[in-house]
Amino acid sequence: MSQQTPGTATAHEPATALSATPSGQGDAFENLSHENRRFAPSEEFSANAVVTAEEYTEADADRPAFWATQARGLLSWSKDFTQTLDWSEPPFAKWFVGGEVNAAYNALDRHVEAGRGDRVAIYFEGEPGDTRTYTYAQLTEEVKKAANAFEALGVAKGDRVAVYLPMIPEAVITLLACARIGAIHSVVFGGFSADALRSRIDDAEAKLVVTADGTFRRGKPSALKPAVDEALVQPGHTVQNVIVVKRNGQDVAWTEGRDRWWADTVDAASTEHTAVGHDAEHPLFILYTSGTTGRPKGILHTTGGYLTQTAYTHKAVFDLHPETDVYWCTADVGWITGHSYVAYAPLINGATQVIYEGTPDSPHQGRWWEIVQKYKVSILYTAPTAIRTFMKWGKEIPAGYDLSSIRVLGSVGEPINPEAWMWYREVIGGNAGKNGEKKETPAPIVDTWWQTETGAQMIAPLPGVTAAKPGSAQVPLPGIAVDVVDELGESVPNGHGGFLVIREPWPAMLRGIWNDPERFKETYWSRFETMYFAGDGAKKDDDGDIWLLGRVDDVMNISGHRLSTAEIESALVSHPAVAEAAVVGAADETTGQAIVAFVILRGDAVDSGDATVQELRNHVGKEIGPIAKPKTILVVPELPKTRSGKIMRRLLKDVAEGREVGDASTLADNTVMTQIAQSLKK
Ligand code: PRX
Predict the structure, then answer these.
(1) ipTM beyond 0.95?
(2) 107-129 confidence digits (pLDDT tens)
């Protein structure tokens, strides 16, 4: 019998035992180790590349000096810094001490001042097909207006602004306007629920919320404002104003005195606004991400180091030629990729970028390729889950478009399997026109490993330097000290696996968890003293190249989106019918992992089969958001537990992935797995 108190989330087995293969991908590594295809850059590509192999040598010789050079070369500082790195109180780093810099000035005004005001900053493509183009001069004006409007509403330096917007230019404008005045933005992804939004608003004590009436999803209006209204129903919050962008035109409820339209507030504001420098360590934003407990962590990033490393990596990893490239990163601004590689780095670097609001299959499955063809996108940055979806739809679809403009392809968010890598290279990177012509040398792929916490890319090939290997992120970037270590923190030799760590502070590193310095130390700096523990398993191959193997903790990766098992378990047990719940991430061909929940219903609850499952899925949707709805919910009589009451999720994962169940000898009751198997047969 279960000893668990009904209605509580269950304790977990410690997940960091090295024997527990990260995400069950150990066998996959054995196959990957035999991957011997290599794709060196073409001579022409290398000859024109913006960075060369010398950067590694330079960075190795003096890491802080390398970053100081990047900081001064890539950004305009209103006050130069006096010390590159202060690491006197680890793990709390200070980069570019004494320097002052304004993110928005660097992303906007200085390009205009340098005569680049007519360059396109953003090509926006709405899901219904509406378009808008912003030059650097126009975007600068919009951001100045928004900065004035926010200030007029009483938002001052250091105040927090919650942002709950779709992928529209106003999202970028809002972020840059906050940065301009020194307000700290906290973006909440539109796929999160009212409850999730409220808890993030409360944690950060946001003064202003910027949202939209809604957006479009697969041709239909999809609302956002009602979630903001619901989040603010209960009193006790800190929000004074809500600015609403009119996007899809749907009816909205209105709270007089609190709500105001973007058009009445921002569009009406003055276009005069002078940016002042903020301290290099002034907080730029908070972004909540899932950890191993139910409570999301507010990851804190500051200004100078973050801007330096995002700008450097964006230039080096994508081989950015800002005068000629058209860059498109498909990430939503609700995630770190949408912060670093949509809102900040491309604009800091003066690039021209595409922003697309909608889904890849609306109104047809060729939409992305139509966009690439239309804007002549030359750098495309997306996630393996999208690539696998396109593979499923078939290569004839991209073959119907001219993708010859593409010169660099990026991947992020999850391990990319060699099969998807090869498809990406040949079908997308090799397309030389819609008549089925092929490029002689397909575009190089850069698989980029990093995290919300790292702020910027950390491991990635350099497209003009590295001979690429399908499926491997390969090498730490210049100035970054990554290693793979064993249980004791010793570096593993080539050909072996272990835990991914970062040995030295890096400019874009998180500066802490909002309001929780202890949790920051405990989560990242306690597993190995003096090293940052990323939570990922990795192996070094015989060449010393790094292969990412997935998380070694209870964090799942669903379509490149990070969710914790504990978060979903607490949502499930908050439903009156649920006594206990255990969640695992099961391997999924398209989404990388899929959420599978095992639940025990309370004695007095009626199991109505599919209706119960549907109700529980909707309940999770309401508690966390649609992205967290389990793909599968299995009602079971018992959960497998050790004698100390910890759930053996390894066994549940076996069930969820349809494998023979592994060693169950440490279970308190060894009939449990049979009971589960029988209940699932019914
Ligand atoms: O497990 C790693 C995986 O995504 C996690 C970070 O998730 P998040 O903070 O949401 O940031 C995603 C976008 C940067 C990592 O701990 N991950 C990210 N990139 C890769 C990856 N796994 C393998 N290969 C990658 N390129």
Answers:
(1) yes
(2) 999 999 999 999 999 999 999 99
Residue 319's nearest CA partner among 550, 570, 47 is 47
User: Does the annotation flag 217 for ligand binding?
Assistant: yes
Ligand 1 lined by 474 (C-beta under 6 Å) = no
- Which residues 6+ apart lie within 8 Å of 415 measured at CB? 25, 384, 471, 547, 548, 549, 550, 592
Domain definitions of the chain by residue range: 41-100+299-466+501-534, 103-111+133-276, 553-681
Can you tell me whether residue 36 is helix, strand or coil?
Answer: coil
Any binding-site annotation on 413?
Answer: yes
In angstroms, what is the span from residue 80 Cα to ligand 1's centroid? 33
**Centre of ligand 1 from the C-alpha of residue 631, in Å:** 21
Fold of 553-681: GMP Synthetase; Chain A, domain 3 (3.30.300)
Q: Tell me the C-alpha distance between 107 and 122, whole Å.
A: 12
- Among 16, 301, 450, which is best to mutate for testing ligand 1, by the most ligand atoms less than 8 A from CB? 450
What pLDDT, on a 0 to 100 scale, did the predictor assign at position 36?
A: 80
CB neighbours of 578 closer than 8 A, spacing ≥ 6? 7, 572, 599, 600, 601, 602, 605, 616
Of 356, 369, 364, 363, the residue nearest 433 (C-alpha): 369
The pTM (predicted TM-score) of the whole model is: 0.92
Bridge partners of 635, per DSSP, are 599
Q: Is 447 annotated as a binding residue?
A: yes
